[in-house]
Amino acid sequence: MTDYSSFGLTDKIAIVTGASQGIGRAIALGLAKAGAHLVLAKYPRGGEQEIQAVKAEIEALGRRAIIVPTDVSDVAQVQALMQQAVTTFGRIDILVNNAGWTGTTPALDVTEEEYDKTMASTLKSVFFACQAAARVMIPAGGGKIVNIGSNFGIVAFDKRSVYAAAKAGVHHLSRALSLEWARQGVTVNVVAPCITETESRKNIFERPGYREWATTQMLPIGRWNQPDDLVGAVLFLSSHLADMIVGHVLMVDGGWTIH
Q1: Phi, psi for 212 (deg, rounded to 5)
Q2: N or C: fewer beta carbons within 10 Å in the chain?
Q3: Residue 38 is assigned to a structural domain of this protein
Q4: 188 within some domain
Q5: What is the CATH number of the domain that holds 205?
Q6: Does the pLDDT at position 217 exceed 70?
Q7: Which residues contact 30 (CB under 8 A, 6 or more apart)?
Q8: Into how many domains does the chain fold?
Q9: 16 bridge partner residues
Q10: Secondary structure of the chain in the HEC alphabet?
Q11: What are the residues facing 250 on neighbouring strands?
Q12: Does position 208 have pLDDT exceeding 90, yes or no?
């Protein structure tokens, strides 16, 4: 097992949204391996077996974990998530906003419904989760918020116009929130991956020639992100080692955005 003990996160209380699979699962397990206890937020429908498996893996490491079904696009549910964390653990030290959603519709065909769904789950959700967490963190003396952005918040990509706008919003929102909250001990930073090889992105990788195009032309490192590739960056930004890092967007994209 990878040794994450040097990050100094023993007994920290961390919330991870979208924790049942993919990047969220990897981050939750990484935080547990670093010593943190977890509040696992998942969409209220589906993924029950997956989130229970994550909880069991965390508990097998000797950490505590609770599951809180949460539709992150619903502000009341986000606020209830933060309250449940405080009720169970007494505080919130770390928030990782990972949950989100995107369509793959050409811009000319995007409907108002799809636009609203993408913005609500990807940008609105991040703002109100940050707000609710900061209301707990600031009176307690501080905390760390890490938002999962995207390389598409820096560069454009076909059929991702609304998602790209939402992720660019996450990046700049994180800077603006840090400007307001850093003096009060709360830093907000971003980890921005390229497309990561998860089950939910399987259809993308199966497109004829897509994998070869991306790994030879777009990714200087020559391979795709795996969920575990995000863990070190999140742990670092969640730790005391990153106390002077404020409103930063850390690209974990294999070099995609250096073109």
Answers
A1: -65, -40
A2: N
A3: yes
A4: yes
A5: 3.40.50.720
A6: yes
A7: 2, 4, 228, 231, 232, 234, 235
A8: 1
A9: 40, 96
A10: CCCCHHHCCCCCEEEEECCCCHHHHHHHHHHHHCCCEEEEEECCCCCHHHHHHHHHHHHHCCCCEEEEECCCCCHHHHHHHHHHHHHHHCCCCEEEECCCCCCCCCHHHCCHHHHHHHHHHHHHHHHHHHHHHHHHHHHHCCEEEEEECCHHHCCCCCCCHHHHHHHHHHHHHHHHHHHHHHHHCEEEEEEEECCECCHHHHHHHCCCCHHHHHHHHHCCCCCCECHHHHHHHHHHHCCHHHCCCCCCEEEECCCHHHC
A11: 191
A12: no
Task: Tell whether the model's pLDDT for residue 202 goes beyond 80.
Answer: no
Question: Locate tokens 């505590």: which residue?
Answer: 64
Does 163 qualify as catalytic in the annotation? yes
In which domain, by residue range, is 217 found?
5-249
Residue 176, in any domain of the structure = yes
257 domain-assigned: no
